[in-house]
Design a protein that fits this description.
It is a single chain. The chain contains 23 helices and no strands. By secondary structure, it is mainly α. The protein has three domains: 75 residues, 434 Repressor (Amino-terminal Domain), CATH 1.10.260; 167 residues, Serine Threonine Protein Phosphatase 5, Tetratricopeptide repeat (Alpha Horseshoe), CATH 1.25.40.10; 68 residues, no CATH class. Helix 13 packs antiparallel against helix 14. The chain is elongated and about 80 Å long. The termini are far apart. 42% of the residues are buried. InterPro entries: AimR-like.
Length: 391
């Protein structure tokens, strides 16, 4: 029997976590828990992960135990598949890479396929693989996967990759079709993880489509589901972020928006890989936009993107300085984003100003970025009815 089990059993006892409670978190009968700790049944990776979370083990301790589990227990192929999903969703990319390198040459076809997909995820987060290359690799893999788990995962990731590229319009319906496939997954732990990923993706696309209430509801559902889990996971991260974003244009909810965005940064901590470093910058940019847009806590601004710097200068009356920044951005990037176009409109007057604001609105509509279309829409003074009549 794996010697670490005896240690964990003792720690569970000291923590007052009885087998009935542990069974609830594992999703099994108490008898199964007893069999595992007596050595009659192997402990699955999913059970191990949940146990470490309940014990609030430090990340260093978790890493040591996971490494020992993989090295010394001769885990079943299914347990290694669980490990890859758990480590990926929790941002533990160094541990994930070790299993990928092992399973990429596995005799088990399912494990090879899992390893190939998680290798793409690893490259995106750890190595900073650019968005277009990431999307291309995912699309190629999506066409050839054999397992239902990787079919679902690659479909969700493709939708998220399209979201990050600004193509929001058709993603919501595409994601809806994934839910039926999730029900076909037999491994309870992987099914649970992929369902969280699915909810996360729906929340993101709902917000961009302007479905603020639905997005918040799904995000709160994710946070409620993970209330027992104090550790980092990508679904939890995006749930905090999207609730914060959803409140940005509501002046009465400034404090709540700030709270959720700061919780996102707190959860990110000090990012350990390029992908999460980029996420940190995006969240900081969003927090800065909130403060600038609502003209609150401006003395606490820490990270301001040139776009938001220009917006701040406009609100302060330095129109010429803002215009220069925005023109420099256009020269550097070749074009403005929908929101940068709205910023530039604020440096203009008369027909040019109105024309650029309408262009910004249409750019938002074309990409499906309805939530942030509130900025140019509010400047133009459109109410919702006039906005739809205009389109």
């Amino acid at each position: 029997m794996w010697k670490v089990l005896n240690v964990l059993e003792g720690e569970l006892y000291v923590a007052g976590i009885k087998k009935n409670k542990l069974a609830d978190y594992w999703g099994v009968k108490p008898a199964t828990v007893t069999k595992v700790f007596k050595g009659a049944n192997d402990i699955s990776f999913g059970y191990l992960s949940k146990t470490l979370i309940l014990l609030k083990k430090s990340l260093i301790s978790q890493a040591k135990i996971v490494n020992d589990y993989v090295t010394n227990t001769d885990p079943k192929p299914e347990n290694l598949r669980e490990a890859m999903e758990d480590l990926a969703i929790r941002g533990k990319f160094e541990l994930l890479k070790a299993i990928i390198d092992q399973e990429i040459h596995s005799d088990v076809a399912e494990n090879r396929e899992f390893a190939e997909v998680y290798e793409i995820i690893f490259r995106r987060y750890h190595d900073g693989l650019n968005a277009s290359a990431y999307f291309k690799l995912l699309r190629q893999k999506n066409k050839n996967v054999k397992t239902i788990e990787m079919e679902v995962l690659t479909e969700i990731l493709l939708c998220q990759a399209q979201y990050q590229s600004g193509n929001y319009k058709t993603l919501y319906e595409r994601l809806k079709s994934v839910s039926e496939k999730i029900n076909e997954i037999t491994n309870k732990f992987i099914k649970e993880c992929l369902l969280l990923r699915y909810k996360e993706a729906i929340a993101v696309t709902s917000l961009q489509g302007g479905e603020v209430v639905e997005s918040r509801s799904i995000c709160r559902d994710i946070l409620d589901e993970l209330e027992w889990d104090d550790f980092f996971s990508l679904p939890k991260l995006n749930a905090y972020l999207k609730i914060g974003e959803s409140l940005i244009f509501e002046p009465d909810n400034y404090d709540s928006a700030k709270f959720y965005l700061e919780k996102t940064l707190e959860l990110l901590g000090n990012p350990s890989c390029k992908g999460l470093e980029k996420k940190w910058k995006l969240v900081q940019q969003t927090l800065s936009f909130l403060k600038i847009h609502q003209q609150r806590d401006l003395n606490t601004l820490e990270f301001v993107h040139p776009s938001e710097k220009a917006y701040s200068m406009i609100l302060e009356g330095d129109v010429l300085g803002a215009k220069k920044i925005l023109l420099d951005l256009k020269e550097k990037n070749g074009e403005w984003t929908d929101i940068q176009t709205a910023y530039y409109a604020l440096t203009c007057e008369g027909e040019e100003r109105e024309s650029l604001l309408k262009k910004s609105l249409l750019m938002c509509q074309k990409s499906g970025n309805i939530h942030y279309s509130q900025l140019p829409k509010n400047i133009l003074g459109f109410n919702l009815k006039k906005w739809y009549n205009y389109l």
